[in-house]
Amino acid sequence: MKERLEAIKQETIAKIKNAEDLNILNDIRVEILGKKGQLTEVLKGMKDVAPEDRPKVGQMVNDTRKAIEEKMEEVKAQLQEKAREAKLKAEVIDVTLPAKKNKIGHKHPNTLALEELQRIFVGMGYEVVEGPEVEYDYYNFEALNIPANHPAKDEQDTFYINKNIVLRTQTSSVQARVMEKTQPPIRIISPGRVFRSDQVDATHSPSFHQVEGLAIDKNINFADLKGTLQEFAKELFGPDTKTKFRPHHFPFTEPSAEMDVSCFKCGGKGCRFCKGEGWIEILGCGMVHPHVLEMCGIDPEKYQGFAFGVGLERIALLKYEIDDMRLLYENDDRFLNQF
User: Fold this and answer.
1) Number of domains in the chain
2) Do both 219 and 292 map to the same domain?
3) What is the mean pLDDT of residues 23-37?
4) In sequence order, which ranges of the chain are alpha helices (DSSP H)?
5) pLDDT digits (tens, 9 = 90+) for 248-306
6) How far apart are CA 304 and CA 321, in angstroms?
7) Residue 120 and residue 56 in one domain
8) Are residues 196 and 226 in the same domain?
């Protein structure tokens, strides 16, 4: 028994010394010390040993196991150190190389402009409301005081799906829907995509975005409209911005006006940006027509209101000094990465 144990020890230690990696070392451990290993087989044969010799044989087995395990731990540590050095050598990092940059997307100019408008009007107590882009002719036209024979309903200006359904030409349809379902006071803005049958050029597109606003309450007048839009212009273009209102006509407001802002590049003196006029047209507005209030179930004798609409792309073009609307939709990284 002693000779057998000594042979197992010497043979196993020799194998351990010659092990080239940790996997081979683990195979040796299983072969010798595992449940079906050679030392385990020796222990199973203890039943055939005389009772008085069992303590000696057991001690010899333990000494052999201890010698093998110590040598195995020694070689294991050496192999682990060798593997670590090889890994470090293979994974050398040149700290002088430039780091890899992650390309992270950012907000589109339209989104930046929309968030700025929403921040301003939400700060004034307005609620952001959205509506369907595919709209009934009634909400897009008739509820806004645009009768069946109005030029705006011409198929050359409007995309018709059928006689009663259109791609909305303005987000004012959202205002009509809100007035129909909600009693004043009402303060909303309605941003969204709209569609008109326009040719694509530097300032026109068949698909673009609008932000329309509506305020309905008792004793609202044109001074409230002017004050609201003046505050909006100052927040958007700077505290020195001036506003000018020019008479205009919209079917759903009376009186109606277009609002200009003083050129924020030259301060109103006249420059290339404002074409020498000192003023830039920015939006249309007016007091909500009494007939529109009546059609939406609101008493025009008791309530008044104002509405306004601004093209989101126009705001983006002015604020970021972009000279061609098409740049917003061409997905050119050279342009978009500037924002």
Assistant:
1) 2
2) yes
3) 78
4) 2-18, 22-33, 38-44, 54-90, 109-123, 137-140, 172-181, 222-237, 290-295, 312-319, 333-336
5) 998 899 999 999 999 887 777 888 777 888 898 999 999 999 999 999 999 999 999 99
6) 37
7) no
8) yes
Question: Residue 174 carries which side chain, given as an amino acid letter?
Answer: V
Residue 189 to residue 187: CA distance in whole angstroms: 7
- Say whether 212 counts as a known binding-site residue: no
Query: Are 283 and 310 contacting, i.e. CB atoms less than 8 angstroms apart?
Result: yes
In angstroms, how far is the first alpha carbon of the chain from the final one? Answer: 84
pLDDT band at 53 (very low <50, low <70, confident <90, very high): low
Show which of 90, 125, 150 is a domain's final residue. 90
Give 29's contacts (C-beta < 8 A, 6+ positions apart).
72
Domain membership of residue 218 as a residue range: 109-336
Does 95 map to a domain? no
Same domain assignment for residues 160 and 116? yes
268 and 177 in a common domain? yes
In this structure, are residues 259 and 313 in contact, taking their beta carbons and an 8 Å threshold? no
Q: Which of 89, 35, 92, 43 is nearest to 64 (CA)?
A: 43
Assigned token pair, 4: 């057998």
**Do 46 and 136 reside in the same domain of the chain?**
no
Strands 165-167 and 186-195: unpaired
**Residues 303, 307, 312, CA angle at the centre, nearest 5°?**
160
- Does residue 252 lie within any of the structural domains? yes
